[in-house]
């Protein structure tokens, strides 16, 4: 039996790793995916219009401080008389930045580290994984606090800290997948015909990781949002007067006996977005698992 290594067949493994239309149709029929998609799209839209409410979110009015929900202020006012709803809309921009910038940065760096460590093996794998294991040994929030303490409080440094805690988790998952895939026949065939290592990593291995990365990234987005809220709650994330849902919850805990809305509504917003990302991850996992035999049949 001979092995046909024609150039037209070498891209097949990359195409096989792409979920395609069956997965998309499965997601459109999944109520979890529809609910999470609605919540996340609404959050992005709200964040996009947040500049329009900047004046209302920063306008101080001592004569209307700590008012409950009403016709004039749908979600009430805070300790300085600022509109809670307007400040929550402003805080949505911080949440979107956390999910996009921090997790996106961690995804790029973690995927690169995992690909290199899993494919190269040897001393490079050992060195990179020891560093990753060292970072994973710290509790998530403790590591984030250490990074922010070293860099200083602020949104930018909080995003860097969140990227630092998410990167090793993504790198570990990617490395495990690559260790399994690098022994496949089509990878060996690509080496035999002289395909460059970079091409093997980016065009053959990386597409096969897309499904796992989508699911895990959705999970890590919820972790990142929770970490940002915790840092802002402790005063190490977003700094006043810029609003953040975590900081609003923290400020509201001092006035629970006066108005409950100041903490409850931002807390519910955090919970809703975190639940949406987790439901999206579950829906993606089920949709990809249902079509995995079909997708890998040609690999």
Automatic annotation (TrEMBL):
GO cellular component: a single term: plasma membrane
Annotated membrane topology: Multi-pass membrane protein
Main location, first listed in the record: membrane
Cross-referenced PROSITE patterns: ABC_TM1
BP GO annotations: transmembrane transport
Bilayer-spanning residue ranges: 33-57, 92-119, 131-152, 213-238, 258-281
InterPro entries: BP-dependent_transpt_permease (IPR050366), MetI-like (IPR000515), MetI-like_sf (IPR035906)
Keywords, in A-Z order: Cell membrane, Membrane, Transmembrane, Transmembrane helix, Transport
Domain ABC transmembrane type-1 residue range list: 92-281
Intracellular or extracellular location(s): Cell membrane
Top-level taxonomic group: Bacteria
Assigned protein family: Belongs to the binding-protein-dependent transport system permease family.
Identification of the protein by name: ABC transporter permease
Native species: Actinoplanes nipponensis
């Amino acid at each position: 039996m001979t092995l046909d290594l024609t150039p037209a067949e070498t891209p097949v493994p990359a195409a096989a790793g792409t979920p395609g239309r069956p997965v998309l149709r499965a997601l459109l029929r999944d109520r979890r995916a529809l609910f999470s998609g609605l919540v996340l799209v609404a959050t992005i839209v709200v964040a996009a219009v947040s500049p329009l409410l900047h004046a209302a979110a920063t306008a101080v009015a001592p004569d209307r401080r700590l008012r409950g929900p009403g016709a004039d202020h749908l979600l009430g006012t805070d300790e300085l008389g600022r509109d809670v709803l307007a400040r929550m809309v402003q805080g949505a921009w911080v949440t979107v930045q956390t999910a996009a910038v921090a997790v996106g940065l961690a995804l790029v760096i973690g995927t690169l580290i995992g690909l290199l460590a899993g494919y190269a093996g040897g001393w490079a794998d050992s060195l990179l994984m020891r560093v990753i294991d060292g970072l994973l040994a710290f509790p998530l929030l403790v590591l984030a606090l250490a990074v922010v303490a070293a860099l200083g409080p602020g949104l930018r440094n909080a995003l860097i800290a969140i990227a630092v805690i998410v990167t090793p988790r993504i790198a570990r998952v990617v490395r495990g997948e690559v260790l399994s895939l690098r022994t496949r026949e089509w990878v060996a065939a690509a080496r035999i015909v002289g395909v460059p290592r970079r091409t093997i990593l980016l065009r053959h291995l990386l597409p096969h990781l897309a499904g796992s990365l989508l699911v895990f990234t959705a999970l890590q987005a919820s972790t990142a949002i929770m970490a940002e809220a915790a840092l802002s709650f402790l005063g190490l994330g977003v700094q006043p007067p810029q609003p953040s849902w975590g900081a609003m919850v923290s400020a509201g805990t001092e006035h629970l006996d006066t108005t409950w809305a100041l903490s409850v509504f931002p807390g519910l917003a955090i919970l809703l977005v975190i639940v949406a990302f987790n439901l999206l991850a579950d829906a993606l996992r089920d949709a990809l698992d249902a079509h995995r035999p079909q997708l890998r049949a040609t690999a």
